[in-house]
Structure formats: C-alpha cells, structure tokens
Automatic annotation (TrEMBL):
Keywords of this entry: Membrane, Transmembrane, Transmembrane helix
InterPro entries: MFS, MFS_dom, MFS_trans_sf, Sugar_transporter_CS
Protein's UniProt name: MFS transporter
Keyword Membrane belongs to the record: yes
Source species: Streptomyces shenzhenensis
Superkingdom per UniProt: Bacteria
GO molecular function term, any single one: carboxylic acid transmembrane transporter activity
Cell location: Cell membrane
Membrane-spanning parts: 78-98, 105-126, 132-154, 166-189, 251-272, 292-309, 321-339, 345-366, 410-430
Record-level GO cellular component terms: plasma membrane
Membrane association type: Multi-pass membrane protein
Region (Disordered): 1-30
Predominant cellular place of this UniProt entry's protein: membrane
Length: 439
C-alpha cells in the first residue's frame, strides 16, 4: 500500500506532505507546521528568491556607473528596468505553465539557472544594446522564480499559517537586496566604476550552487502533485480566462482583477526599487558609502515589513492587509519625495517606514494568489497575473526616467503612489480567501 496520504488531505486541515494535524501556534509554529519536506521546500524557495533579488539589484545599484560608462540619459537607463519587467511577464507565464505540467521543483530550477546565466552575461556586455538584450533575457528567469517557489511552499503550508509562511518567503527579497547593497559598497569602494559594475554582474553566478541542492533535496508536495497529475487541463491558459456560468464559476474575473492588483503594487514598488539609489546619489548628494547607509534603513524596514505583513495577512485577511499598506505606502512615497534638501537626517529615518510599508503589502501575495486558483492551474494563474502585473507596472519606472530630466527624480517618484491607488481599487473585484484549504 502506498504511504502517500490521499489528495483529500489538502482540504482537511492536515499538514501537506506529513499527514499530521496542525496545532502549533508558537512564534515559529508556522515553520514546524511544514514538516521536514516542507521545510526543505521553504529553504529552497527562500534561497531562490533571495538570489533572484540579489541578481535584480545588481542593475539599480550600478545604474549611475552604467550611465557614465555608456553615456546614457535617464530614459535609456529607465528602459533597463522596463525590458526586464516586460520580459519577466513572458518568463513568469511560461514558468507557471511548466510548474503545472512538469512540477514545481523542476520549474524552479529552470528559472534559477536562467536568471543566473544572463546576469553573468550582462557583465560581459560590450555596449548598451547588448546589455539591454542580456537584461531582457535575465527577466525570463527572474519572472518565474517567485511564483513557482511561492506555490511550492503554499502547497505544504496549512491554511492557518499560510500567510506568515509565504510572508517569510517574501522577506528573502530583503535578504538578497541587503547582500547586493553590501557587495555594491565593497566593490565600488575598491574598484573603479568602469570595472565595478561588471564585477557586480559576475557575482550573479551564485545561484548556480542552489540548483545542485534543489535537485537533491527538494520535492513537490505529494498530495498536490497527485491532484495536479490527475487533471488533464493542468497548465491551461484557456482555463484561467474561462468566464463563469450559472452552473460553474469561471476564473476570468479573478484573472483580470488579480492582474490589475499586481500591476498597481509592482508599479509602485519598482518605481522605488529602481530610482531610490539614483535619487540618493544625484539629488541628495550621498557618496557610495552614504547611499549604502541609507539603504540599510530602507532594507531593514523591508525585512520587518515582510514578516509583519505575513502575520497581519493571517490576522486581518488578505484584502485588508493589502488595503492598509497600499494607503501607507502611497503616503510614505509622497513624504520621501518632498523632504527639503537640507534634511537628509529626516530622509534617513523615513527610509525605515517606507521600506516597511512597500514590503508588507507583498506579504499576502503568495498566499492570496495561490488561494485564488485551483491546483491544476495554480502555477499558470499565479505566474500569469503576478508577472503580467510586473510587466505593465514597468511603465511606472520608465515614466519616472523620462520625467526625471525635467521634474527631477524626487518629483517624478510620486507616480509610484498612483500604483498603490490602482491596487486598492482592484481589490473591489476579488474575494477574501483567508482560511481556504488548497484542495
């Protein structure tokens, strides 16, 4: 007789992959609740997303050096972010389909290898056009990693703890961001700018080590894999765009509003992630070390924001958590961009709540998007909506780039607040899913 628990375990409140009932409410109860296999899946997804973040931030942190090396204006540098995020929509959608058809872990390895290879290739780019192409191709892997890793862990997590479990996965973005900021400070302090930006990209080879571990130690949640394999429509784009009928609800409405939600949140986030380092150096007059210090406050706030948001998304619900931090993020952006030129101390202090709010809003995304879609198309739905939102949201940092020459980077940052307003409106078309089992 097979030792694999029946698929119904996903809807009876037991721990996926372990067959044990969840009753642990301690501070780390969510981690113990995953079981041994789930904790390995958590470690793989956490590491993958942290290194995804690291590879992403090699570009924004090197933006000033790149602009000087290739003689670029603000619009051209903003285009780097745009192509990365636009192509990430393709990569994310493809990775989601792969996750539903060949499994979560296999798809995760493919995305990690892709973003690592093309990040390293960026360091060898001889001109602006080649770097733009390599950065676009890096977006293929960058787009898929989070969605696949989040689903992998969501299918191990209990409904009670899913929000904080996925919030902890989100916090790894801040870990990767912090690592990139440390390496940036060291590399640009000891090397000339013309070589330093290349070295930053070359360090993007680190994720290759993670793939070896993933292959040997991490597996899909067995119950979810069984449900997925029995469904002939797994990985179907048609399924996530099917309208509802009187007999059966469809997923079209969910897909449209989830995509709009993702567009708003990521439009606001990537505006800040792309332009704050440049803003600190060019308009606030900070040195490399000074910029690193200010980013420390921002990143520390982000890390705690992910963890706090994960807790609140389980306590308040998915929608209320996103509404709360959409409002607070918009207010923080407006304050951050309008601090008087002589008040860099205030800028330093405000970096913490800015990082906190713009990250806490993401904590519910992994659980929320996973709960909006059934198992057979969970990867497809989450990969498509999250990364389509990322691609459309890429308009925001590009708009800032083109307006920066006339408005200044600080003045143009206010467009990030618009993104959070769009996210709040999108929630009006989506249901609350707190407590939902992933059947």
């Amino acid at each position: 007789m097979s030792s694999t628990p029946p698929p119904q375990a996903l809807s009876t409140g037991v721990r996926s992959g372990t067959g044990e009932h969840s009753s642990d409410d301690g501070p780390l109860g969510w981690l113990r609740d995953l079981g041994p296999r789930g904790r390995r899946a958590f470690a793989g997804a956490f590491g993958g997303y942290a290194l995804d973040s690291y590879d992403y931030f090699t570009l924004p942190l090197s933006m000033v050096a790149l602009a000087a090396y290739f003689g670029l204006d603000s619009g051209q540098t903003g285009l780097f972010t745009t192509v990365t995020l636009v192509v990430s929509a393709i990569g994310g959608a493809a990775a989601g389909v792969l996750a539903d058809r060949v499994g979560r872990v296999r798809a995760l390895m493919i995305t990690v290898i892709t973003y690592a290879v093309f990040t390293v290739a960026c360091g060898f780019a001889p001109n602006y056009e080649t770097l733009l192409v390599f950065r676009a191709l890096q977006g293929l892997g960058f787009g898929g990693e989070w969605a696949v890793g989040a689903i992998l862990v969501a299918e191990y997590a209990s409904a009670k703890h899913r929000g904080r479990t996925l919030g902890a996965i989100q916090s790894s973005w801040a870990v990767g961001w912090a690592l990139a900021a440390i390496v940036y400070t060291l590399v640009f302090s000891f090397l000339g700018d013309d070589l330093a930006w290349r070295v930053m990209f070359w360090t993007g080879a680190l994720p290759a080590l993670l793939v070896v571990w993933l292959r040997r130690r991490v597996h899909d949640a067995p119950e979810a894999a069984a449900v997925r394999e029995r469904n002939p429509q797994r990985g179907s784009f048609a399924a996530i765009f099917r309208p509802g009928t009187a007999a059966a609800p469809g997923l079209l409405r969910i897909t449209l509003f989830a995509g709009l939600l993702s567009t708003g949140v990521q439009g606001g986030y990537y505006t800040l992630a792309t332009w704050v380092p440049t803003y600190l150096k060019t308009e606030r007059g900070l040195s490399v070390v000074g910029t690193g210090g200010y980013l420390t406050f921002l990143i520390s706030g982000a890390f705690l924001g992910y963890l706090t948001g994960g807790y609140l998304t389980d306590r308040l619900g998915r929608r209320r958590n996103i509404w709360l931090f959409a409002l607070l993020s918009a207010l923080c952006i407006l304050a951050y961009a309008n601090i008087p030129s002589g008040a860099n101390g205030v800028l330093l202090v405000l970096g913490f709540p800015l990082g906190f709010c713009m990250s806490a809003i993401f904590s519910g995304f992994g659980s929320y998007l996973s709960e909006l879609y059934p198992t057979a198309v969970r990867g497809t739905g989450q990969g498509f909506t999250y990364n389509t939102g990322r691609a459309v949201g890429a308009v925001f940092p590009t708009l800032v780039g083109f307006l920066a020459d006339s408005w200044g980077v600080g003045g143009a940052l206010v467009f990030g607040a618009l993104g959070y307003g769009i996210a709040a409106l999108a929630l009006l078309g989506l249901p609350e899913t707190r407590g939902k089992e992933l059947a």
